[in-house]
Amino acid sequence: MATLSLLLTLLAGGVAALALCSALVVRFKSPKPRPRHDSENYSLCIDEKHERQRLGSLWDEARVDLSIIVPAYNEEERLPVLLNDIREYVAHRRETGGLSYELIIMDDGSKDRTSEVALEFARIHGICELRVVKHVVNRGKGGAVTQGILSATGRHILFCDADGATRFSDI
Questions:
Q1: CA–CA dist 94, 79 (Å, integer)
Q2: What confidence score (pLDDT) does residue 106 get?
Q3: Those residues with Cβ within 8 angstroms of residue 47's Cβ, 6 or more apart along the chain or in another chain
Q4: Are 93 and 99 in contact (CB under 8 A)?
Q5: Is the CB of residue 78 less than 8 Å from the CB of residue 165?
Q6: Residue partners of 102: CB distance under 8 A and separation at least 6
Q7: Smallest Cα–Cα separation from 45: which of 124, 135, 136, 132?
Q8: Residue 153: which of 70, 47, 33, 65 has the closest Cα?
Q9: What is the pLDDT along the chain (171 residues), one digit of tens a residue?
Q10: How far apart (Å, rounded) are the C-alpha atoms in residues 76 and 139?
Q11: What is the dihedral of CA 5, 11, 13, 19, to 10 degrees?
């Protein structure tokens, strides 16, 4: 009986050591997000001043209930459909229980009018919660999502693709 107890203790210690080693490898070997260019620390929105606003941080105290992150690269044609779907979803949620949110469009170095289309949509529909962050260079979808999440100030964070693969009405 004592031998079994000793074996179980050694096994537990080995599992704990393996878990610690795995955590250390992940911590020190995982790639770090590329640092932002200075201009990527600011967002564009439709406020009266039309000034760039400094981005928030995931580490700040939550300012809204939900942060919606949309990575977008050359999505000027599909983006309005998604933005309208988000607008309807948020309007319904506000009616049924209140919802504060921010909508962060991560323009990942688009060559088209993605940013302008998003800001125009916000002006037409009066969506002051929409912000556009323009990447200087394309970081890829993972980079856009990562930078969007790091800029979020919501208690909950949701990201969706600009192509409308997931409808907000399905949430």
A1: 22
A2: 96
A3: 53, 128
A4: yes
A5: no
A6: 63, 64, 66, 67, 68, 129, 131, 152, 153, 154
A7: 132
A8: 65
A9: 678 787 778 777 777 777 777 777 776 766 677 777 777 888 888 876 666 788 888 889 999 999 999 999 999 999 999 999 999 999 988 888 888 999 999 999 999 999 999 999 999 999 989 999 999 989 999 999 999 999 999 999 999 998 878 877 777
A10: 18
A11: -150
Tokens matching residue 21: 């080693």
| Residue 103 near residue 71 (C-beta atoms within 8 A) | no
Rg over alpha carbons for the chain, rounded to the nearest Å, is 21
Q: Report whether 142 contacts 114 (CB < 8 A).
A: no
